[in-house]
Here is the input.
Amino acid sequence: MTKKRNFSLLSHRAGAAFLAPAAALVGVFVLLPFFWVIFVSFTNRTLLGKTALSPDFVGLQNYFQLFDPATFFTRGQFGFSLILTTQFVLLSALVGQALLGLLLAWLMQTIPPALKRIVETAVIAAWILPEVVIGFAWFAFLDYDNGTLNMILRGLGLPAGDFLLQQPFWVIVIFNTWRGAAFSMMLFNSAFASIPPSYFQAADVAGASSWQKFRDIGLPLIRGHVVTDLILITMWTFNVFTPFILTNGGPSYRTELLSIYNYRIAFREFDFGKGAAVGVIIMLINLIFALIYLSFGRKKAKAVEE
Amino acid sequence: MASVEFQNVTKTFGTFNAVSDISFKVADGEFICLLGPSGCGKTTSLRMIAGLETPSSGKIMIGPDDVTHLHPKDRQISMVFQDYALYPHMNLADNIAYPLKVRGESVEKRHKRAKEVADVLKIGDLLNRLPSQISGGQQQRTSLARALVYPSRVYLFDEPLSNLDAKLRLEARGFLNHLQRDMGMTAVYVTHDQAEAMALATRIAVMDRGRIVQFAPPIEIYRRPATTFVANFVGNPPMNMIPVEGTIEGERLQLRAHGVLVRDLPISSGIKAALGKGAGLTLGVRPEHLSMGTINDVNMVSGKLFANENMGPEKLVTFERQDGGRVTARIFTDDAVETSENVAFTFDGAHATLFDAEGNRIPADGEMPL
Here is the structure.
């Protein structure tokens, strides 16, 4: 071991002193609740009644209840929400956001810089809008009687549809794709921009088509960014709550994602113990995603080094 | 192989004229260097041949084809980039064979061809390495191999040696010269290094502010620089330039300046015309044409010793004339240099180059082509 020279601005003691307030806040508002939730998930704690003050320790009963094979796949139950959320992540995050974002970012490389800046500005403007505003805008867009979409359809002589009622799942998939593709696009856009232009010019001169440049040069060189993007959007989409504004989880639980299910159990039915168990499971799933992607990224990085 | 022709090509970026109305023709099998300082338009010109930039106006021909608006991939050209543009995630074999891959060649075929080319360039043992695992000189040869691996009509070089250290650069330069002799390729080579241009080119196009100032074989560029700009740019150290007053004494031209008395130069009609306007002349003498002399020599330049640099086979002696203008002489080390304060040098009148007030070279009467 070689001894590293210390180039820090502050002494260890002063640094610790400055860090203390933030550490205390993180401890009280992040770490403590984290362990508290794990603890609560092993109890039958509720908001009201006898178990509100003196909950009983019930062991894994909450977890068994969630994974009860008799009701697992029933609408409105944990298993149904889990499968729904998985489909939602696959379609709206991986296919929708990541793939669409990648395609848009690649197309952005070929347009003139001025146009590119305008598109970037528009995309960011749409992205920074508050969730609630977006939710309401989409609600208004899709309304059966006065919605913009149906006005357009009627204007074109096409049949109008009550999409929120008939295709609620596809509505939230498209909504989330629209909502999140901008992030992936911006991330991939800057990743592509970090590749020296001469790489693509050399390929141009060598006779490569746009698809060959994308497959052989663009994509392999932004692999790290792709992994980062997939980790982030998978987790965001897995935990996303905004579709609640559009569909309220319904109709009849058809869009009740895991986060919405968790909310209903914990804060509508006030079954804190069961809600905490759902939260712990969501956390574990997120952890697995992160580990898979990270090991994937490390493997690729190692392959490049060798 | 094919010829390349520029017909009145102009390229503007916003309001900046990168290339202003240039026309020239590169014959089949010629090695042309575009030489000039940064911002002179040489790289832009090269990129227009490659199709990486589109001319604002004018026409570019490769062989019989008008390629002005053709995509790079449809031009059948090769290019070596300044930063080599090697793909960091591919090993050398895949890097070199990439142009064959996009042409749909099978893996065995393209790796066989890559090996052949790599062997010629002495990197055949490194084909499994990644670009980050080889030296700069090897990277340069890899990018050269990628340009040579497929049949091309024109080879384009964008300062390919500028990232190498001095010793490797000389070696690579020699190799490029050998390759050119071997293949007889049509090449356009951009550089700001005049020695590189002199060594490689069959003809050099010296560029300044978007225009071609002189387009001629290296020897002509060196001996008969068309303007003071070319005279200053070519040669290391560059040609000495001394503003002088000229008078005609009998049948000979006399030149005077502080520390300068030149009494024996032939007169030409150009000189008479320049003197007739009453404007001054500029005397140009290459450092190697100055030799140790005395204050009484017929053609004399003198001043106070400023620097005396030993270069091994030769010495660079710089002295300062009375008005502060510096003159450098290159003399053989064996010739003793006076260490005294005042030095005088002389030169043969045949080696003097004269420029008019606009900076254009005044030709001698009855000048024969070189």
